[in-house]
Amino acid sequence: MRRWKCNLCYRVNELPEEFNYDPVSKTYGEPQRRPEIQSATIEFIAPSEYMLRPPQPAVYLYVLDVSFNAVNTGYLQVFCQTLLEELERIPGDGRTQIGFLTFDRCLHFYNLADGLSQPQMLVVSDVEDICLPRPDNLLVNLQESKELISDLLNKLPSMFEGNTETGSALGPALQAAYKLLNATGGRVTVCQTQLPTVGAGALKCREDPNERAGRKIQNLGPATDFYKKLALDCSAQQIAVDLFLLNSQYTDIATVAGISKYSGGCIYYYPGFHTVSSPAEADRFEGALRRYFTRKIGFEAVMRIRCTRGLSIHTFHGNFFVRSTDLLSLPNINPDAGFGMQMSIEDNLECNQVCFQAALLYTSSKGERRIRVHTLCLPVTNAISEVYANADQQAIIGLLSKMAVDKSLTQSMGDARDAMINAAVDMISAYGQILASSQRMGQLPCPYSLRLMPMYILALTKSVGFRVGSSTKLDDRVFGLEEFKSMPLTMIVLQIYPNLYPVHALDDNNALNKGDLVIPQPPMLHLSSANIDRHGAYLMDAGSYMFLWLGASVSDRFCAEVFGLPNFASLPELSNELPELENPTSDRLRTFVSHLQDQRPFPAALIILREDSRQRNLFIQRLVEDRTESTHSYYEFLQHLQKEVKS
């Protein structure tokens, strides 16, 4: 009888007979060829003992703000049209259910029962004690009621066109959503455009515009625990709530975000949204909706993180509820979510490698109960120099950003900023001690693997969430912090330190060939104004946004070939579209932008800026290696670190 040894607890077990069969090659006798031995990532169909109830169907409820402010932004037309176009591609099977709830001061439910000639709106004006206007047909089978659903989506924008009601009963709408879904679980999608003002969860403005540029940041935490408590109730019933915030005024994201953070949902933010006056945000919203409606989704999930004996995981980062010490409750899970974990070494590690394993138990949109397992093995060393040599600076800055968010909420923004800088000082000091006499005097000791860490930390202190001394709206700041907690690592790094490319002379040298496409690969530049020439054009990829900067002396030929306009003076001050012109310069630039867009889950908004634009600070403030009135340049920051290390 063969035996196997667990790589986490080291227990020796007998090998089950069925493990000798390889389901891929359909042969016996070679268990080492099984998929779970060959691959670090594998998915299993879960047996019945992993089911507390039959797998739930895919259930989607859309909760839409239809107040005067919401209708005025034009978002409802974008939302309804996009959902209508993607209705056939929504993940699910023949059991998929869908429902709609709109709200202003009142709640509006929609009876979409198969057999009705048109959707029936049911209005609940008493929002103090929420009750459903009818027990059935508010959630309906998508296939059976598709015509009524399409009819409602076509009519919704015009139904509220003249609405003058300015109140927002977000809290009661969420309570109603909970009652609708508590028997099945599912996903609640909320679009909100203003501060909740009516019923449970009503809020008052806590932002003082005069303190936006201050160094002491107030009101980063919630004003009430209503949204957190409701989120925990939702989580217990396998309901996740996703928020789309499309506001032009203060919405208190610090408070309302609790409904998503603790229910395993997502938060999306479109400041100043308006389909006419803010077309870039409108395009970003539409692109995000297409991805959101159609991406893969898992329901009623739990995730457990295990590690080798002698190690322990003590802190988790992301949007979830911690059910026990190593079990995360995730009513919904999607491929765009990011998580972070902190671990500590509890005992001496006597083995030569350690293992980490994440196991996700979830229900697919087709109703299958599955277990997805990721396993990572890493070597153990007693040489600190080896740790430094193999450090992943992007993973480190990603985790540091999450830890700093927690510190800004539990202590203060100043403490969070100090902790980030101290992390750089400690890292360099420890490495300097390793080098000892081999390090030249006067040089800042930093290992090659972590050579960008000081720059990343400086950039992090200048990010929207953590910066001080620069006018920053409270909602912008809070959302900037929320992103660090839940975004994938690649997007976090772009938010902290955007990629900057010169695009005024794109060519095919070193181009990437992808099928029939030839994608230019311009060099990346440091984020410093010293690299910005007035004769050039530069593309900055900052994650959620891309900025195309046009220098005041950019060539007339570039203007003609890219924009179809004779010179710089004829370019609009601000725009967000690259026209399709039939020439190599236009083709290369549009191909390069499309290539960058394809590298992320959600499309970035493209903002085209002239050097003299009133909005130029959107670009300039991201040149994080430059000095400002209240922050160091990169060179000055290195000098500061060197001084701290010596002291």
TrEMBL record:
The keyword Lipid metabolism does not apply. This is Protein transport protein Sec24B. GO terms for molecular function: SNARE binding; zinc ion binding. The keyword DNA-binding does not apply. One of its GO terms (cellular component) is COPII vesicle coat. PANTHER family: SEC24-RELATED PROTEIN (PTHR13803), SECRETORY 24AB, ISOFORM A (PTHR13803:SF39). Residues 55-293 form the Sec23/Sec24 trunk domain. InterPro entries: ADF-H/Gelsolin-like_dom_sf, Beta-sandwich_Sec23_24, Gelsolin-like_dom, Gelsolin-like_dom_sf, Sec23/24_helical_dom, Sec23/24_helical_dom_sf, Sec23/24_trunk_dom, SEC23_SEC24_subfamily. GO terms for biological process: COPII-coated vesicle cargo loading; intracellular protein transport.
